[in-house]
Design brief:
- The protein has one domain: Rossmann fold (3-Layer(aba) Sandwich).
- The protein is 30% helix and 17% strand.
- It contains nine helices and eight strands.
- The chain has an eight-stranded mixed β-sheet with strand order 1-2-4-3-5-6-7-8, with helices on both faces.
- Helix 2 crosses helix 3 and helix 3 packs parallel to helix 7.
- The radius of gyration is 17 Å and the shape is globular.
């Protein structure tokens, strides 16, 4: 395995009740974090959390403050939460040192979810909560013919028109400018950057190359997404255009029966690692509840 794709020497710490599992994605072994609903209560649904580029599954189990973890919050409210190391990250980095394209990642993810369902209850089905590059995967997966079975998508930090030039996009050479990814220090609890060091991972080369293509591939993907979608932008999101004109164009391109746009004040791109994490996660769970109610 190339040195640039080496895994951390020790895994990131996890919250109480969160455990590591492995899933078979049609021959690709994916690592994941799992938090389950309280014992003796079938999960209301299963939340599949997809991290962004250059991150890992622990993004949704932030350790800088107890309020950050989506996994512990959602599990306490009756959901199973499966935060997956996307193909090319975590355990699969050795098997896929160059990663996969979004279409390939979607196929691997669906295969892994089929494997998951043989071992765990899924409740009403799968709801995808994704961040940044994970949002691209969420939309790509929803555009697949299997996507109609998804309960809905909740995506943060992902638009369709970049607010930066090609040279600033993250890739195999690096994660892009620090200020674009994080924003002001005041948005995050103390020790965030110390506790998050083990979450950061190299972006696979194929993923990095595909990043620049998203504005041209998005229209076709969006036209095939037919489940409810909620898109959240931090007030100080710097990677994506999220002005009224850009958001109106984004919304118009989605074939979804319902599209909700939300904004988070006093937050930067990495919302789920900041002080705004709990309020954002609660709103995402409220959207999931609305999606479930719409299925009745």
């Amino acid at each position: 395995m190339p040195a640039s794709r080496a895994l951390p020497a020790s895994p990131a710490p996890t919250s109480l009740g969160v455990r590591r599992i492995l899933l078979d994605g049609a021959g690709v072994t994916l690592s994941a974090l799992l938090a389950e609903a309280p014992p003796h209560h079938p999960p209301r649904a299963t939340i599949v959390a997809l991290h962004g580029g250059g991150m890992s599954a622990g993004y949704f189990d932030g350790q800088a403050h107890p309020d950050l973890s989506l996994l512990t919050l959602a599990a306490s409210l009756g959901y199973n939460v499966l935060s997956v190391d996307r193909p090319g990250y975590g355990t699969s980095a050795a098997q896929l040192p160059d990663g996969q394209t979004l279409v390939e990642q979607a196929a691997t993810l669906y295969a892994a979810l089929k494997h998951y369902a043989t071992q765990y209850e899924t409740g009403a089905g799968y709801f995808v909560l994704a961040h940044s590059y994970g949002g691209k995967l969420a939309l790509t997966a929803a555009a697949d013919e299997q996507g109609a079975a998804l309960i809905g998508l909740d995506i943060s930090g992902c638009g369709h028109q970049y607010a930066v030039g090609p040279d600033d996009l993250p890739g195999a050479r690096g994660h892009g400018r620090w200020s674009l990814t994080w924003g002001a220090l005041r948005y995050y609890p103390p020790n965030t950057f110390l506790s998050s060091a083990s979450l950061v991972a190299p972006m696979p080369a194929r993923e990095g190359r595909e990043a620049a293509l998203w504005p041209t591939t998005f229209p076709d993907v969006a036209a095939r997404v037919r489940v409810p979608v909620r898109l959240t932008f931090a007030a100080h999101e710097a990677w994506w255009r999220h002005d009224e004109t850009a958001v109106a164009d984004l919304t118009a391109r989605l074939a979804s029966p319902r599209v909700v746009i939300d904004r988070v004040p006093e937050a930067g791109h990495n919302i789920s690692l900041g002080w705004a994490a709990r309020s954002y996660h609660l709103k995402a769970l409220a959207f999931l509840e609305e999606c479930l109610a719409g299925r009745v």
